[in-house]
Automatic annotation (TrEMBL), chain A:
Belongs to the MreC family. Residues 128-273 form the Rod shape-determining protein MreC beta-barrel core domain. This is Cell shape-determining protein MreC. Residues 71-108 form a coiled coil. The keyword Isomerase does not apply. Involved in formation and maintenance of cell shape. The chain crosses the membrane at residues 12-31. The keyword Coiled coil applies. It comes from the Bacteria. Keywords: Cell shape, Coiled coil, Membrane, Transmembrane, Transmembrane helix. InterPro entries: Cell/Rod_1, Cell/Rod_MreC_2, MreC, MreC_beta-barrel_core.
TrEMBL record, chain B:
This is Rod shape-determining protein MreD. NCBIfam families: shape_MreD. It comes from Alkaliphilus hydrothermalis. Keywords: Cell membrane, Cell shape, Membrane, Transmembrane, Transmembrane helix. It is a multi-pass membrane protein. The chain crosses the membrane at residues 7-27, 33-51, 71-90, 102-129, 141-159. InterPro entries: Cell_shape_determin_MreD_prd, Cell_shape_determining_MreD. Coiled coil: none annotated. It holds the Pfam family MreD. Its main location: membrane. Belongs to the MreD family. It is found in: Cell membrane.
């Protein structure tokens, strides 16, 4: 009888000890780490190629199916895109005029010995191989890592907007935290008015919302937001469009809701911008 | 013979765990409802430990959680901790319930999901992550509990077949 009780206690004690060890591990790994341990890297190196294969297959199938079912929509989209191309071509001609002026000004900048604030970035293209199986965070993995020259806090973006930053990385894979993640925040500015700035945060329901620094600033629905250059992200990357503006009840803050430019449910290829260290 | 069978069984469980992690992170992403992913890892831990007892349940939970934490986690050990405890407690009661009743996995999964999210929330709160209580309630405690419970029936039937064929062979 006593022996039985002893045996029962033993497994409970082991569980308790392991639980405490895990809590300690949690405490140690809670912040962002510069380097992963060998075990973690190795596990990722083994599993990520399989994930890559499966996700490529799955996305191919889903794309094929959706293109069959959405044939009409694609047709409409095609017409719209053609219209857009015409508009963009018009815009290019005007932009070219502006560019000439800009070059002149740049030369002037050099003459005035202006301090260059930009860091150069070298882009790498990678595929999204898997997304987090939990519901708390919005993390996904990509098939590029240390061996490809990317570092932690590299900027990840799609062709049309900001996606997130590299959180931790292994040899051939990296974890990316997206901007709609519960705990990420970015500083933004309104594209048409560089002085209107604020902070956006993600949420567990995958919505971007935020507030403006200046309670008297004017923001309207449809305003395009870009990164402001404060914090991790360089200036000028598109974030999204304002879909809702609300003045909070105490009239001290303007809160906004933002529709991200990138569709986070359908990410295939991403661009990783690594700050060029040699430039410094 | 018994030992060999156990080895094979352990191998199958390990394989299922890895395949589940891969599917959950790739294919299942297309089956999100209201942006909520079914937590098949949790359901697998519950179903496996229903059949294999508390010690194995705890080990299975620990390895499932650890794998998930290493590849996707922001905090290593969080999922491992929760899954291990859930595996252990489900294993504790495995002799006291009728395994043929399909209501059992549904009820256990619902309770397990609530427990999982609550412990997660507590730890994230302590680690100074932002928590929006209303959204957590809506997303995790309503949609995810329902979704997981429905998924649990499918997985439970599969797992019970896995274990029952083994038992029949022994006779």
């Amino acid at each position: 009888m006593a022996r039985k009780g002893e045996k029962k206690d033993r497994s409970a004690i082991i569980i308790a000890i392991v639980a405490i060890v895990l809590i300690i591990v949690m405490g140690v790994t809670a912040g962002q780490r510069e380097k992963l341990t060998v075990v973690e890297k190795w596990v990722g190196n083994v599993i990520s190629p399989i994930q890559r294969g499966v996700s490529a297959g799955a996305s191919n199938i889903s794309e094929g199916l959706s293109s069959i079912f959405n044939f009409n929509r694609i047709k409409k989209e095609n017409v719209e895109l053609q219209k857009q191309v015409i508009e963009l071509e018009k815009e290019i001609t005007t932009v070219q005029l502006v560019r000439d002026e800009l070059e002149e000004l740049r030369e002037l900048k050099f003459a005035l010995n202006y301090i260059e604030d930009g860091v150069k970035y070298s882009p790498i293209t990678a595929n999204v191989i898997a997304k987090t199986p939990g519901n708390w965070f919005n993390i996904f993995t990509i098939n590029a890592g240390e061996k490809h020259g990317i570092t932690t806090n590299s900027i990840v973006m799609a062709g049309n907007g900001l996606i997130g930053r590299v959180y931790e990385l292994g040899d051939h894979w990296a974890k990316v935290v997206s901007i709609i993640d519960n705990n990420s925040s970015i500083s933004f500015q309104v594209q048409r008015d560089a002085d209107t700035q604020g902070i956006l945060t993600g949420s567990i329901t995958n919505e971007l919302s935020g507030y403006l620094f200046d309670p008297l600033a004017e923001v309207v629905v449809g305003d395009k937001l870009i990164t402001s250059g404060l914090g991790n992200f360089p200036k000028g990357i598109p974030i999204g469009e304002v879909i809702d503006v609300a003045k909070s009840s105490d009239q001290l803050l303007i809160t906004i809701k933002v529709q991200p430019a990138v569709n986070f449910n359908r990410m295939g290829k991403v661009i990783i911008m690594t700050p060029d260290v040699t430039y410094e | 013979m018994n030992k060999g069978e156990k080895k094979i069984q352990g191998f199958i469980i390990g394989l299922v765990i890895i395949v589940n992690l891969i599917l959950q992170s790739t294919l299942l992403q297309y089956f999100k409802i209201y942006n909520v992913l079914p937590n098949t890892a949790l359901i697998l831990v519950i179903s496996f430990s229903m059949y294999s007892g508390k010690n194995q349940g705890a080990i299975i939970g620990l390895s499932v959680g650890m794998l998930q934490d290493i590849i996707f986690g922001r905090i290593v050990g969080l999922n491992a901790f929760v899954y291990m405890l859930i595996g252990y407690f489900v294993g504790l009661i495995n002799r006291k319930v009728f395994k043929d009743n399909l209501l059992i996995p549904v009820a256990l999964t619902a309770v397990g999901t609530v427990l999982y999210e609550t412990v997660n929330m507590l730890f994230l709160c302590f680690l100074k992550y932002r928590i929006e209580l209303f959204n957590v309630f809506k997303k995790m405690l309503v949609v995810e509990v329902l979704y997981n419970s429905i998924f649990s029936i499918l997985i439970y039937i599969y797992v019970s077949k896995l274990f029952q064929t083994k038992k029949k062979k022994r006779h």
